[in-house]
Design goal:
Length: 550
């Protein structure tokens, strides 16, 4: 089946939906979403969206906090533009109908999170992402120019170079033409042709055993972009959120940093506080510092968790400000008004990703990326809390403007006339060994948690790399022999993404931001640069393509 659109948007969080809404003014749009349209990391964002909203705050201060958190790796021009364009984009969200929490009779209630020198987090209590996502979907549904494809998953990008072996990788003819997409419900592969493709498929938290991310976060976009020859930057910077609920059934439920912003205090089992020993901002230190401090304290004491204490805050305030967190904790037997709750760090945000410029353009022509899947330079070596929704919003807006200009250019070549082959599954048959997928999946996530976590060492990284390489070979064989399913596609993506994280971590011979290694515990100015990974071998878009792992 062939579907032709001017714009193909892969992913349906804030970055994808912003792009789709704006792009629909310039042409037809398809939104492809792996699950239900609303199922994305955006839906679960609790904290909010950082933006300069008051006279006592400034773009310079927001930029300074962002750059400080990013530990010397932020691209300062990108930081300044995103901070500066933020408020206008936030106002557009409000015009669309997003209801941020207000103070009675006054303006918006602004929260504080780690690393911020001002209260500048707009929120809808602790369900900010849900409010944004559902409002945007309502707007999407009323646009005739947008067609949505829920339960459709990216297999691989189609580029000219991958169809014609005579084209050199990286040549001007190496451009995005669309993608092969799996209809998850029917297992049929569809060919999407598009003039412009936006990758907005989110991060890769599911690469780790414990994560605050939804099940969809399997690094699909990063892996597919890498296989297509896109540059991937700084994958070693995986952000661990310091406070996820510690309970076997809670699936690392996030306890928003705004809980600490409203006065929550981290304590050890015996009630003593410890963050003052690690940073002058105490419990509101940047996230890398807090997560490492908790990890250190847990290792020192042998305890399974630390505690977040909000019992000194009036109960009605906690219940009103954090209705979702309060109710969820209660469901698991913890009343946070009465007793401190047990918390642990968990993988939360992929700071590295597909390298893009100020307009979200990748090194592959007509392929853009925005949101968690990309590396724009905003986050550097450590993302400042609540800057991610902001990045998706601003960058996607800029990407649409740039894409519209490209489409208008006289020399723009549409892929619609090209004879693109349909998906070829070769001799693949249905698998009778699906257990291989679940075993490998579990093994990868455990390896990454044990050896590529908050504290790393060369020995642990090499150990992880050896094991991941074996698994990649096994998965490649499996992928070649059996008909693809969502599970096999996700497995090959988490395996490749795990490999990229390890490669980035092995390259960086220093500790900086979210990458801490016992072998190089200091920050080294010679490493004030990005790690870039790129597959320069020509890989055809067939069922055999898994990316270069050597
Ligand atoms: C949180 O609410 O703590 C998460 C916000 C973020 O990751 O930016």
């Amino acid at each position: 089946m062939l579907i032709e659109k001017d714009f193909l948007v892969i992913g349906s969080g804030i970055a994808g939906l912003t792009f789709a809404l704006k792009a629909s003014q310039f042409g037809s749009v398809a939104i492809v979403s792996k699950d239900n349209l609303d199922e994305s990391a955006t839906l679960y964002a609790q904290g909010g969206i950082a933006s300069v909203m008051t006279d006592d705050d400034s773009f310079e201060l927001h930029a300074k906090d962002t750059i400080e958190a990013g530990r010397g790796l932020c691209r300062e021009d990108v930081v300044r533009i995103i901070c500066k364009e933020g408020p206008a984009r936030v106002r557009e969200l409000i015009e669309l109908g997003v209801q941020f929490t207000r103070i009675r009779g006054e303006g918006y209630h602004l929260s504080r999170e780690g690393g911020h020198s001002k209260n500048r987090i707009l929120h809808a209590n602790d369900l900010t992402g849900r409010e944004i996502e559902l409002t945007m979907i309502e707007a999407i549904n009323s646009q005739k120019n947008i067609e949505v494809f829920p339960h459709h998953m990216l297999i691989d990008h189609i580029t000219l170079g991958r169809l014609d072996s005579k084209i050199e990788p990286g040549s001007s003819k190496d451009e995005a033409l669309g993608a092969y997409i799996l209809d998850v419900k029917t297992n049929q592969v569809k060919t999407f042709l598009s003039k412009i493709t936006l990758l907005a498929s989110g991060g890769a938290g599911k690469v780790y055993l414990y994560t605050s991310n939804p099940d969809t976060a399997t690094g699909d976009g990063i892996a597919a972009a890498y296989r297509a020859g896109a540059k991937i930057a700084n994958m070693e910077f995986i952000q661990f959120h310091p406070t996820c609920l510690y309970h076997p059934q809670a699936k690392s439920f996030l306890i928003s940093e705004t809980v600490r912003g409203e006065g929550g205090i981290l304590r050890l089992k015996d009630g003593t506080t410890f963050m003052e020993n690690y940073h002058s901002m105490g419990c509101l230190a940047p996230r890398d510092v807090v997560a490492r401090a908790i990890d250190h304290e847990m290792k020192k004491s042998g305890d399974d968790c630390v505690y977040l204490d909000t019992t000194h805050i009036e109960g009605y305030r906690t219940r009103e400000r954090f209705p979702n967190i309060y109710q969820t904790c209660l469901k698991f037997g913890f009343d946070m008004v009465d007793k401190p709750i047990p918390v642990v760090p968990a993988a939360h945000y992929t700071c590295g990703g597909v390298l893009v410029d100020l307009n979200g353009q990748t090194n592959i022509r007509n392929l853009f990326a925005s949101g968690e899947v990309c590396y724009s330079g905003l986050h550097g070596a450590n993302r400042l809390a609540s800057n991610s929704l902001l990045e998706g919003l601003v960058l996607s807006n800029r990407a649409v403007s740039k894409a519209a200009l490209l489409l208008k250019a006289k020399n723009f070549k549409s892929p619609m006339h090209l004879d693109i082959p349909s998906w070829d599954c070769g001799n693949a048959v249905d698998s009778d060994e699906s257990v291989v997928v679940s075993h490998n999946w579990e093994e990868i996530r455990r390896i990454m948690w044990n050896y590529v976590g908050i504290v790393r060492s060369d020995k642990r990284l090499f150990r992880a790399e050896r094991r991941i390489k074996l698994l990649l070979d096994e998965i490649k064989e499996y992928y070649w022999n059996f008909t693809i399913t969502k599970n096999t596609l996700e497995l090959r993506n988490i395996a490749l993404t795990a490999h990229l994280i390890i490669m980035g971590a092995l390259q960086r011979k220093e500790s900086r931001g979210l990458h801490f290694t016992l072998d190089y515990p200091k920050t080294d100015n010679n490493w004030k640069k990005d790690t870039i990974l790129q597959d320069t071998t020509r890989r055809s878009v067939t069922q055999t393509s898994i990316g270069n792992i050597s």
